[in-house]
Design goal:
The chain is of the alpha+beta class. Helix content is 22%, strand content 40%. Among the domains are: 24-131, no CATH class; 210-293, Immunoglobulin-like. Helix 3 runs antiparallel to helix 4 and helix 3 runs antiparallel to helix 5 (174-188).
């Protein structure tokens, strides 16, 4: 080979090597695929509890490339201790790793088995799988609309434990609850409930996180400024027409709107049919709803 040909060959090899390096700097991959192809090693542990920064990942690259890793929604990590809840990622976080680099990232994550105990701080976890694609959409909707942690948690349990759709509710965020429930109902082709239920929860880690049979039932009675500025009342009647209770000006507001929240306690209020009327001081009915109060767990 002539000197000139040799120099040309070296130039071609240099160009190819440079092009490879440039491509390597922009390799994008999902965490799920990176784990499956062993491009990364992941060690996971719980911070304790659910929601904000509940899952901590130590991720080590096994690649010579720079990896831009998309941590997807609805990735389930199972605990080494089977009495504890698995954790499900909120997702849509990006982690960039240089060749053979290790980084730690704390992720928002939600409990994935309501019958198990609350995650223990420092408890070890292992990646299991990605859950339902509909849950992926729900978590993205909840994140983009800045939904409260309690509603995101309730939404996850409707997928992992088949909790009723009406349990995705918080009396502190009545309108946000309605919005998220309607979104889930549309995605899953389910009926939108007319009333809601809340479970008693235990985060001590000493017993199952959700206590069934102690539900509180909630009814949102919606009122807007366009309906007038008179004093607002809610009257609750039994099936025979007798007054059960009256709620005055119990208006709860969140950034999505306002509602009068009516509560029933399944341990104290008698089972049966109730008629709820939202009315003004002229006794003009603005809204009316009928509910059936049951003593059955998971109503």
């Amino acid at each position: 080979m002539s000197p000139r040909s040799y120099i040309c060959l070296l130039g071609i090899l240099f160009i190819c090597h440079t092009a490879y390096d440039a491509a390597a700097k922009n390799r994008k991959i999902s965490l799920r695929k990176a784990i499956a192809t062993r491009l990364v090693n992941v060690r996971a542990k719980a911070r304790g509890g659910t929601g904000e920064k509940a899952l901590i990942l130590d991720v080590t690259s096994n690649s010579r490339d720079t990896l831009s890793i998309n941590i997807e929604p609805a990735l389930m990590f199972k605990p080494d201790d089977s009495t504890r809840q698995p954790l499900v990622t909120q997702g849509d976080e990006i982690l960039v790793l240089n060749a053979c680099e290790e980084k730690t990232i704390a992720l928002d994550a939600y409990c994935g088995n309501s019958g198990a105990y609350c995650p223990k701080r420092g408890g070890r976890y292992t990646f299991s799988r990605q859950l339902d694609t509909t849950l992926v959409s729900v978590l993205r909707y909840a994140k983009s609309n800045d939904m409260p942690i309690c509603l995101k948690q309730g939404a996850v349990w409707t997928f992992t434990n088949e909790h009723p759709l009406r349990s995705v509710y918080s009396p502190q965020y009545p309108v946000a609850s309605e919005n998220l429930i309607k979104y889930i109902a549309k995605k899953r082709k389910m009926d939108v409930p007319t009333y809601y239920s809340g479970y008693a929860t235990d985060t001590s880690g000493q017993r199952p996180m959700v206590r069934r049979g102690e539900e509180t039932l909630y009814v949102n009675m919606n009122w807007t400024a366009q309906q007038g500025s008179k004093k607002i009342y809610v009257s609750v009647y039994r099936a025979d027409g007798t007054l059960h209770k009256r709620v005055e000006n119990n208006i709860v507001s969140d950034k999505y709107g306002s509602a009068v929240v009516v509560r029933f306690d399944t341990r104290r209020d008698q089972a049966g049919k109730y008629i709820i009327r939202l009315h003004d001081d002229m006794n003009t009915t603005l809204q009316e709803k009928t509910v059936m109060l049951s003593m059955e767990p998971g109503m």
